[in-house]
Design a protein that fits this description.
Rossmann fold; alpha+beta; 24 strands; 4 domains; binds ligand 28F; about 20% strand; Heat Shock Protein 90; Ribosomal Protein S5, domain 2; about 35% helix
Amino acid sequence: MALVTPAQEYNDASIHVLEGLEAIRKRPGMYVGGTGVQGFHHLFKEVIDNAVDEALAGYCDWIDVTIHEDQSLGVQDNGRGIPFGIHETGKRTVEVAMTVPHSGGKFGDKDSGYTVSGGLHGVGLTAVNALSKWTQVTIWRDGQRYEQTYRSGPTDDGKRIRIGEPDQPTIAKDTTHARGTLIRFLPDSEVFGHLHFQVGIVEERIRMMAYLNPGLTITLTDLRTSDERRVFSFEGGLSAFVDFLNEGKKTLHTPASFSGTSGDITVDIGLQYTDGYAETLASFVNCIPTKSGGTHVRGFKAAFTRTCNDYAKTNGLLKPGQDNLEGDLLREGMTCVLSIRIPNPEFIGQTKDELSNKEVQNIVSTIVTEQLGAYLDQNREFATNLIQRAILSKRARDAAKKAAEDVRTGRDKKDKNGRRKVLVEKLTPPQSHDYEKNELFIVEGDSAGGSAKQGRDFRHHGILPLRGKSLNVEKETDLAKILKNAEIAAIVDSIGAGIGSSFDLSQAKYGKVIIMSDADPDGGHIQSLLITLFYSYMRPLVEAGRLYVAMPPLYKLTYQSGKGKSKQQEIVYCWTDDELDDLRRDLAKQKVSFELQRYKGLGEMNPDQLWETTMNPETRTLIQVDVNDPSIAERRITTLMGSNSDLRKQWLYENIDFDSYEE
Ligand code: 28F
């Protein structure tokens, strides 16, 4: 509750007023969506939406927006002016509109001339007043000029906190024949901190309103930088809007526009195709964006798809028995603005930005069916091109689906006379079905593959030996061709989660996929090919940090330790030249002679050594493939596996802590 001195007596109406404004002040987030930049600029949106409502009602065709040097913002329209006569509560109408939430609901008043309003408008001006340090209202109406200021903050004697409280108004004779409402306000830094209006955000809203309301002119002056008055007025309406949205893109035709009314609902549509694939559909109800769509959008999409397919069948572009083209294929490359006006909009959804009025769906659908049908008949070349593009997209989509399906079902493993190909038999699967713990080793070369099969942890290790180089996937983009490569299909099949857009990480049969190849340039090449494959066609697996590269040792030292009976053979592995140097120095100090072996390839290790040095989670070192940039991982691997040992040394000391276990 605001501080109220007992001396000043409030009648029940004003206590009610305080509670209203107080509530807004206490929880701005509920009324303007937070106290950040968006919430701050929502105050401007509430005020200009009120002026646009007056334009929608047909009484205003001009709005001036001014950002002042004191950081306050003013909006002036040339509408009828908010009534300032005495309201049934004994207060002036304008005071009620400024201080009582949900009082401004326009169509409450049947004679207010409002048929449509921007939705939940009532709270608009009240919220602006409650959250501003001051709000000035000037009204020109009935040959009079009404001025009043509302203030928030401590009173001069500091004894009280006011919230949006009205000062005494002044009413003077006005001979200028001006009409309309001016609202100028300064958002309260107590609520928003020291935010200021960003002219870009203000301009974007102005531009949108001007496109949605051809015939309405809106000007913007930012006195903080210049006194230039910018004018936004677009006779072209939604056609101009889609043209603006497609700026810089290659468009396929001049914008099409459809519009119609049914009862007191009006529908306006602008649409224009570009040569791209993206679909942009911006929808509005009474100039309020409906980000979650609703019945108007559903009506549009259903009619659009049906009308295009009817045209295709009627004109022999689709065979009568052929499946219809899906709507999203037909809308590839389409930019569309759908704007409807309706007196009693009903919104649903968390953020109230989905239209739910049922009657709208058929009204929009009827208008689109009639007018799009006519448009296609009158623009046959455009229509044919639209259908043929969609048919191509359908073919590509079906091919990708079939390719992925084949892999999943193993259908592509059959050779021409239906015999199952040998691929998957190359895989030695783990015994466990604990997919999280299971690890797939993709091993280069059959001999290393043999050692890996024998040395592995048979419960959790799957071994897939690969022969020679896999297909260079970077150059090949056609999924169907990629899958033809036997090696790649074996990998995809072993992991079991599909490939490309149908890849589903939850189906993966391994928690880790480990690429294990020789520490030589050939090995490095295979690694980078496989990393490219995973990054290109199984990215979620990489992003989940499940792709690794094994680090086999470079050297093995063998020497005798201990004396007499306790004499025994020691084997030590080194991953770097420095490690080797350190060890040699130690052994030299101890005057111990040793035998040194430089590993040329995995195949030179017997199963136990391969297990001990490269596969055993307790003793191995793995490199996790970096999700952000596979080339980093590739560089990392080249460094480690490439011939330049200085690079390797440098990288290893910076990145691998040999004392820590890799888990
Ligand atoms: C700068 C922002 O807010 N313009 C507005 C009007 C006009 C009327 C009105 C507004 C409360 C409940 C009626 C005038 N004459 N610009 C604006 N212009 N509000 S807000 O009425 C709101 C009253 O019902 C108006 C006759 N009917 C309505």
